[in-house]
Specification:
The structure is a homodimer. Chain A has about 220 residues and is α+β, with helices and mostly antiparallel strands. Chain A has 3 domains: about 60 residues, Winged helix-like DNA-binding domain superfamily/Winged helix DNA-binding domain (Arc Repressor Mutant, subunit A), CATH 1.10.10; about 70 residues, Arc Repressor Mutant, subunit A (Orthogonal Bundle), CATH 1.10.10.10; about 70 residues, Ferrous iron transport protein A (FeoA) (SH3 type barrels). Chain A has 8 helices and 8 strands. In chain A, the strands form 2 sheets. In chain A, strands 3-8-4-5-6-7 form a 6-stranded antiparallel β-sheet. In chain A, a hairpin with a 2-residue loop joins strand 6 and strand 7. The radius of gyration of chain A is 18 Å and the shape is globular. At the A-B interface, helix 4, helix 5 and helix 6 of A face helix 4, helix 5 and helix 6 of B. The structure holds a DNA duplex (30 and 30 nucleotides).
DNA sequence: ATTAAAATTTAAGTATACTTAAATATTTTT
DNA sequence: AAAAATATTTAAGTATACTTAAATTTTAAT
């Protein structure tokens, strides 16, 4: 299947995970940087190919087959990220940018080689789960957004849900990294901001960031 | 530039190296598995883009810019081959097949990372030279085809010029590998065959193989 | 030097993946 | 509940990269 098709089903899969009813043609078009008309067009074509269910004016829903394709692309993306991060010590943003291209030109054979080489990891360097060769995500996610955490408690960063270079640059220069521990000092509910401590530095984060930084309670 | 364009200039570059006057649209079409008409079509378009010189019924000739593009793709191809061979211990045919896809989706940035990681190698696992980041091939080739060698002498295998799975499988199961030493026992000139010894085994090769196995004299 | 064979080119047409503009339906606001 | 705003769909059109079929040119054979 083509790059355009792979990106289309991937976009639906990801938008669906974030927020249901977020998979209308317009949402997907925005994500992919194409016109709404192009998204509707593609949706109709993929419905014929049984990759998704299409009903006028309704959100797009992947079929089993469509989801399988999306998970296969996501698997390759996250394996590449993990591999490039480990092997070449590239930044979170750089690995994302390269994986975005490589994911479409990677055979299942090579994906499995990469996975074996890495010891079949369950998470990529952003903390996103890596589907296995059958497209299954077996790990249960107990993490919460930083915006949902309690004052005075400590948490371990488990996921950085973003594609954005500025965000990753900010994270890199502030020690916000998968596996690191942070303390929540204040939840400024009214202003939707959170004050945290990390590496003895105090940082104030607004909701743009506290909604995409996921953490787990410390044991 | 698109995958089709990259493959087109690469095909001209490679055919030109093998045999001049081997770059007519028909030759390129055959190599790429497209119709002659499609090749002519593409040639005209790329002439407008100043990637090659096109004159009706004449061989296609890359411009400086076209050659630069070809060398950049070749560089990425051979770097991937070297990298996959080393990292995942894949066969000569497998690395070629994967590199054929990855070469088009690899940034210059990543190519340089791979090159550095490998210690900026000058040859890939087939013995093909790897152009540097400026598209230069600095190594001088003193090798000759196995068909040109002298009876009774020993040689070191320096290059396996093929894309063919059957050939690589044959090589793998007979110890014919970049860097290995072979002795030439007999040149059966009349039948265009060569009898060699490798690892204490005697093998008879016909010209299909002796023309694509390149060797260097032993010091 | 003709003729036959082969290759190249031209012409017309197709599929994919888009675009913009207009029409239609849905959602939100008042 | 009607009007306004927004989103979706339809329609028409474009660029890329092909295809087959026919016309033309070149190359090879006699």
């Amino acid at each position: 299947m083509s790059v355009a098709v792979e990106n289309f089903v991937k976009a639906i899969y990801k938008n669906d995970n974030n927020d249901t009813n977020n998979t209308k043609p317009g949402n997907i078009a925005k994500k992919l940087g194409i016109s709404n008309a192009a998204a509707t067009d593609m949706a109709k074509k993929l419905a014929v190919k049984k990759l998704l269910h299409y009903k006028k004016y309704q959100p797009l829903q992947l079929t089993k087959e469509g989801e399988k394709m999306a998970l296969n692309v996501v698997r390759k993306h996250r394996l590449w990220e993990a591999f490039l991060y480990k092997t070449f010590d590239m930044s979170l943003h750089d690995i994302h940018r390269e994986a975005e291209l490589l994911e479409h030109e990677t055979s299942d054979f090579l994906a499995n080689k990469i996975s074996d080489y890495l010891g079949n990891p369950k998470f990529d360097p952003h903390g996103d789960p890596i589907p296995n060769a059958n497209g299954e995500i077996t790990t249960t996610d107990t993490s919460m957004a930083l915006s949902e955490t309690q004052e005075g408690k400590s948490y371990v960063i488990s996921r950085l849900m973003s594609d954005d270079k500025e965000f990753f640059d900010f994270c890199a220069s502030n020690g916000i990294k998968y596996g690191n521990t942070i303390s929540v000092n204040k939840q400024l509910t009214k202003n939707r901001m959170t004050q945290i401590s990390i590496n003895n530095n105090s940082i104030l984060l607004n909701e743009d960031f506290t909604n995409i930084i996921y953490v787990n309670k410390t044991e």
